Amino acid sequence: MPAEIQITTALLPLPETQKAAAMVYGYDPSGKLVVLRKGNHMVCIADDPAKEGISVACYSEALEPFMARGRELSAMGKDFKEREEIRGREVASGALKMPGEPSMMYVYYGKEEGYDKESGMLENGKFRYVVYTPFATTESTGLPDKPHAPGMPWLMDPGTHRAHIMIGPFD
Questions:
Q1: Residue 81 and residue 83: Cα distance in Å, rounded?
Q2: Boundaries of every domain in the chain
Q3: Parallel, antiparallel, or unpaired: how do β-strands 103-110 and 42-45 relate?
Q4: Which one of 98, 112, 135, 169 has the fewest beta carbons within 10 angstroms of its own beta carbon?
């Protein structure tokens, strides 16, 4: 996929006001994750061509150490559980820093059938919003740990370094 198309697709989740300055990672012809565009404040990841469907995400640069460490551990062959255990230990020891304030992630995803490879646009995609709030609890936020209505905010992984508020999709 050409870099320009990967960038267009990667930026889909962001509000228009944040797109021009965002950094974008994408994939080179060998499938390696590379920087396609330098930027600041927000980091976007293009769709992984090796995975089914279309899924792109953009997040606050405050989350980059945590996300980069996850990518590094994945490249070492660590599965989800191993990555989370390692990052949890590293956060607890102070070796890996989590943001001190809530940090945003925007996700936009959909089916291959709705993706236009020439324009980089995705029809009928869905948004998911994630606000990382490390160590937040249901008591500290007032949020439940499961949604009880479509699209309502809820707290995933409460009390852990991965605690985050999930919002959406709305169906």
A1: 5
A2: 3-167
A3: unpaired
A4: 112
**Structural contact between residues 128 and 147, judged by C-beta atoms closer than 8 angstroms:** no
- pLDDT per residue as tens digits for the range 113-163: 999 999 999 999 999 999 999 999 999 999 999 998 888 999 999 999 999
Six-digit token string for 19? 């797109």
Residue found under tokens 């607890």: 92
- Residue-wise pLDDT tens digits, 34-68: 999 999 999 999 999 999 999 999 999 999 999 99
Amino acid at 27: Y
**Whole-angstrom distance, CA of residue 41 vs CA of residue 21:** 7
For residues 22 and 11, is the Cβ–Cβ distance under 8 A? yes
A 10 A CB-CB count for 105 gives: 20
If DSSP codes are grouped into helix, strand and coil, which group holds residue 18? helix
Nearest to 59 by CA among 122, 4, 13: 13
| Cα gap 134→99, rounded to integer Å | 7
Three-class SS state of 144: coil
What token pair was written down for 78?
């660590």
Residue with tokens 């707290």: 155
Asked whether the beta carbons of 128 and 167 are under 8 A apart, the reply is yes
Enumerate residues 6+ apart whose C-beta is below 8 A from 143.
Answer: 153, 154, 155, 165
